């Protein structure tokens, strides 16, 4: 508070943020407890996160666990990064190296892959400081934090309008019932026949399997809109659109809490953080004190655990479930070709792959396709996603691993061994590797420390990430006035409608929009045992007749104290 009194007699932020104060509030975390520079994120990545010769498969879960994680992540957070003139990326290894916008990653001399000494990295955009009051640097979220289908519909009225046809509540589509086209500079194109996909989230073209998630929900929206329009001929475009959007958002919440999270967590964690939906009827959980904003520790580290589940390739599985084509992931970034090829059949084959093939274990290992070759461009430049995650944590000033241990009521490590007082949730071998790169346990970055923990039995993560993720998913549920299970007259579903939403599974959504000869009921788990392949006809369906002759009442919004 003493430092902040500087603001009393200054007028410009640049004056307020004098050199010593700036060091405290604005600079990245860059030194360890001994005052020496923290190890290079690329070095940490090489020692802790390099994958072995063979990818370690998840014996229980399909690629869908990874793919839903990314699609969901894009519904809840997008952190803007500082950009130069006309939106061009800063070259932080070249002429901009010493600018305050830059925080390039040093590459150690004897790196096994990179030949240069620098990986480009621009800092996340800071929240504009208010007047003359220089607060701690904070970052922004440019999408809606609520799980509300914003990746399908956009996060602003302008984005939404651009995605709608304006007729019969429908979303725009492109050839072969794919998402509509966007400008050609939004992705990399193989030929003039290909086009960049447009969706509610700008990252839709990152990998083909993500394009599949987006395409699926555009199709499902239009399928439902057509049924609702036929059931209610008196509804106009706006009514059909909003009623359909309400159903799609509820489906995304329902699939997240009844299929995705139970794949990531065991039953204890689901119960501890109140993450279970009830099988039928209302479950009003809204708590006006809970804020559904996305925490920095979640966006920058914990929810990036899914990066270790990304497979080495993107694949297509054909109708017979025998034939599979595999394309190394480094050749698919920002390139929607696989989705669009063969008159959109590529899309369906990717969906079949994601829903049926084993995913990768959510361990500390990240594959070369994104640990060395992320966003490989035609000039041969690429990134290391593990190093970028660690650097982003430092850029945001995220407290190190031990801090979060204490925050979560878990013991902090005083030594690198794995006996009590040390890294009790790590394997002894991993403790040794951490000691090799870090000078002190207090220096361990949250991403690395959390990702390298042993799993809680039945979970895809260890105790520290389970705590950060559990609290965040609880906040998305209890902090959402429009949570699909809430009973608020006038804005929610009727009980009969809610019970239809509660029949929804991802397998149903896939069956409704692709020709799947067979599918397992839970597509987050591999088809085996009780979850064996069945006919699409055997998958429960949502009965939309519950929306027939249904008239939206004028919303009677509940009034809560803090809304005064
Ligand atoms: C093919 C798959 C994926 C690729 C290529 C990818 C790539 C990336 C990249 C390049 C970033 C930005 C890094 C930075 O500059 O800080 C990022 C951010 C992120 N990723 Fe992924 N990712 C993938 C899948 C996933 C999955 C499966 C999850 C979670 C289950 C996930 C969670 C996140 C989160 C939470 C962020 C932070 C978003 C933000 O704050 O803007 N990603 N990812
Ligand atoms: Ca959202």
From TrEMBL:
Its main location: secreted. Gene3D superfamilies: Haem peroxidase domain superfamily, animal type. InterPro entries: Haem_peroxidase_animal, Haem_peroxidase_sf, Haem_peroxidase_sf_animal. One of its GO terms (biological process) is response to oxidative stress. This is Peroxidase. It is found in: Secreted. One of its GO terms (molecular function) is peroxidase activity. Keywords: Glycoprotein, Heme, Iron, Metal-binding, Secreted, Signal. It holds the Pfam family An_peroxidase. Heme b binds at residue 307. It comes from the Eukaryota. GO terms for cellular component: extracellular region.
């Amino acid at each position: 508070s003493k430092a902040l009194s500087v603001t009393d007699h200054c007028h410009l932020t640049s004056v307020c943020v004098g050199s010593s104060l700036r060091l405290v509030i604005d600079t990245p975390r860059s030194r360890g407890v001994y005052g020496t520079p923290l190890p290079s994120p690329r070095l940490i990545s090489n020692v802790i996160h390099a994958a072995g010769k063979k990818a370690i498969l998840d014996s229980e879960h399909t690629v869908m666990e990874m793919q839903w994680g990314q699609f969901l992540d894009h519904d809840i957070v997008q952190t803007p990064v500082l950009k130069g003139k006309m939106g061009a990326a800063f070259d932080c290894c070249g002429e901009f190296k010493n600018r305050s916008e830059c925080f390039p990653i040093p590459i150690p001399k004897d790196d096994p892959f990179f030949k240069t000494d620098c990986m480009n990295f621009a800092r996340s955009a800071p929240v504009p400081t208010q007047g003359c009051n220089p607060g701690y640097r904070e970052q922004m979220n440019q999408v809606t934090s609520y799980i509300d289908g914003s990746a399908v519909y956009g996060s602003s009225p302008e984005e939404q309008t651009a995605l709608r046809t304006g007729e019969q509540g429908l979303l725009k589509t492109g050839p072969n019932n794919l998402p509509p086209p966007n400008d050609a500079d939004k992705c990399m194109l193989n030929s003039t026949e290909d086009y960049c996909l447009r969706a509610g989230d700008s990252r839709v073209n990152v990998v083909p399997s993500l394009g599949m998630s987006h395409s699926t929900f555009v199709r499902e929206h239009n399928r439902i809109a057509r049924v609702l329009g036929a059931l209610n001929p008196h509804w106009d475009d706006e009514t059909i659109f909003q009623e359909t959007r309400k159903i799609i958002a509820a489906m995304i919440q329902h699939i997240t809490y009844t299929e995705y999270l139970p794949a990531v967590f065991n039953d204890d964690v689901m119960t501890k953080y109140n993450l279970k939906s009830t099988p039928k009827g209302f479950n009003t959980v809204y708590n006006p004190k809970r804020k559904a904003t996305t925490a920095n520790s979640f966006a920058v580290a914990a929810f990036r655990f899914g990066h270790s589940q990304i497979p080495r390739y993107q694949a297509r599985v054909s109708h017979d479930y025998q034939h599979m084509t595999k394309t190394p992931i480094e050749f698919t970034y920002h390139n929607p070709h696989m989705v669009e090829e063969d008159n959109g059949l590529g899309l369906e084959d990717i969906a079949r792959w994601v829903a049926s093939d084993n995913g990768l274990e959510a361990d500390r290992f990240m594959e070369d396709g994104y640990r060395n070759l992320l966003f490989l461009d035609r000039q041969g430049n690429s990134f290391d996603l593990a190093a970028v995650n660690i650097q982003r944590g430092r850029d945001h000033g995220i407290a190190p691993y031990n801090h979060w241990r204490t925050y979560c009521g878990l013991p902090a490590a005083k030594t690198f061994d794995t006996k009590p007082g040390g890294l009790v949730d790590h394997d002894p071998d991993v403790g040794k590797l951490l000691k090799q790169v870090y000078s002190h346990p207090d220096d361990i970055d949250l991403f690395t420390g959390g990702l390298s923990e042993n799993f809680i039995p039945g979970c895809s993560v260890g105790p520290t990430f389970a705590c950060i993720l559990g609290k965040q998913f609880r906040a998305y549920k209890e902090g959402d006035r429009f949570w699909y299970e809430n009973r608020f007259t006038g804005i929610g579903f009727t009980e009969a409608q809610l019970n239809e939403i509660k029949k929804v599974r991802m397998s149903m959504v896939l069956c409704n929009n692709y020709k799947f000869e067979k599918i397992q009921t839970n597509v987050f788990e591999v088809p085996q045992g009780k979850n064996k392949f069945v006919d699409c006809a055997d998958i429960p369906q949502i009965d939309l007749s519950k929306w027939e002759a249904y008239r939206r009442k004028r919303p009677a919004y509940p009034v809560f104290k803090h809304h005064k």
